[in-house]
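Posting here for the record, re: glutathione.
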Amino acid sequence: MTLKFYAHPFSSYCQKALIALYENSIPFEYRILGDEKTLAELAALWPLRRFPVLVDEGRVVMEASIIIEHLEIYHYGPVRLIPQDPQAAIEVRMMDRVFDNYVSTPQQRVVYDALRPVQVRDAHGVSEAKAMLEKVYEWLDARMATREWAAAGQFSLADCAAAPSLFYADWTHAIDPKFGNLIAYRKRLLAHPSVARAVDGGRPYRHFFPLGAPDRD
Ligand SMILES: N[C@@H](CCC(=O)N[C@@H](CS)C(=O)NCC(=O)O)C(=O)O
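Prediction output follows.
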């Protein structure tokens, strides 16, 4: 039975799960969110209406990390995105949390603020979010000085999280050129075929980016 994947091509968390699907060429039915019908299907599956959501033989799986965990158990291919060795796997999961919680979360906070009416914007929240991005950039830059990929010496779940989060974070609060290791890692990610494919899928929607998508990447 075909996997159904409810997602939008411009969404960072959807790109995270798409990278895993593409990495192992897993076939799926792409239920692109946009029209009333697919949005209603999503709401029936997950009332919080956050995406992506995967449906596998009636089983509803939400949260991008858990979708990737699910694929690793039920639809794994030659590229293992979570190492079999539990000690390596815990490092991968730790870095996955770092990218979601300390890159994507503050990045989205800035973007969601820009989408609000001017009179209810939260300048303090935005400056806190940018300060967090600045701190995590510094930490990641030092970490990436000796690494090709985020964890465990292989392309993994952590890199699926890193790619869209750093892609949009740099658009939102530019990574300072002094963080050369992090900038090089972001470039490496964007050149990786499954990542490039996921990012390309979002190209037609770049005008949606409320802070103005830069003319690059
Ligand atoms: N923790 C969720 C986050 C999902 C998420 O925030 N998705 C965004 C799109 S990138 C979304 O659903 N936005 C719609 C909304 O906030 O109503 C995950 O890891 O999948």
